[in-house]
Amino acid sequence: MHVSNLISFQAVLVMLLLITQEATSSKYQPRRVEFGRCTKDEPMPRAMFITCANKKGTACEVRMGGVHKVQVVFVPEYNSTDVDSRIAWNNDWLEVEMPNQNRNPCDGMMECPLEEQHITRFDYSLKIESFWIRGVYPVIWRLTDRMTNKPVVCLKFKMEVV
């Protein structure tokens, strides 16, 4: 086998491995997820998409030990240079913060600084820890301006850990 053929073969092999790795990490197609308002005073997003394991249903199925891509599309009502992200399990009387979350969305999850009335995409990789208990959970997700503590966007949705 010629050296050039060997290099071409290796290049094809590396590309196939990368494609296979990408296919397994994005095993599920993103789908639009229903969400609700947090409070009447907190801004809502325009849309939310998650790589759910199920194609239909009111709760987005997420797999234990998996990573699911979340995208929230919103229009900020004011400018902000420093934003905090917080996701928590939510019921009527208690919010329990999800473990091991990245709370700094300006580190590559969205364009910062935020510009008032500019369509913004927030992209997040949500790790579903293998120790989580299976079940349907109400979830609340807030992006908040760190300087003023004003909400940038907030939404509630249902997630089913399977």
Please provide a written account of the structure.
With 162 residues, the chain is mainly β. The chain has one domain (28-161): Immunoglobulin-like (Sandwich), CATH 2.60.40. Helix content is 14%, strand content 36%. It has one helix at residues 3-25; strands at 31-32, 47-50, 60-62, 67-74, 83-90, 95-97, 120-127, 135-145, 151-161. Strands 3-9-8-5-6 form a 5-stranded mixed sheet, with no helix packed on it. It has a 4-stranded antiparallel sheet with strand order 1-2-4-7, with no helix packed on it. The longest helix is centred in the N-terminal third of the chain and has 23 residues, at 3-25. It is globular. Mean pLDDT is 85; it is low at 3-25.
Task: Tell me briefly what this model is.
InterPro entries: Ig_E-set, ML_dom. With 162 residues, this protein is mainly beta.
And the CATH topology?
Answer: Immunoglobulin-like
Q: Biggest sheet, strands in spatial order?
A: 3-9-8-5-6
Unreliable sequence segments: 3-25
Separate helix tally: 1
Highest-level CATH class:
Mainly Beta
In terms of DSSP E residues, the strand content is 35-45%
What number is the mean pLDDT?
85
Q: How many extended strands?
A: 9
Structural class: mainly beta
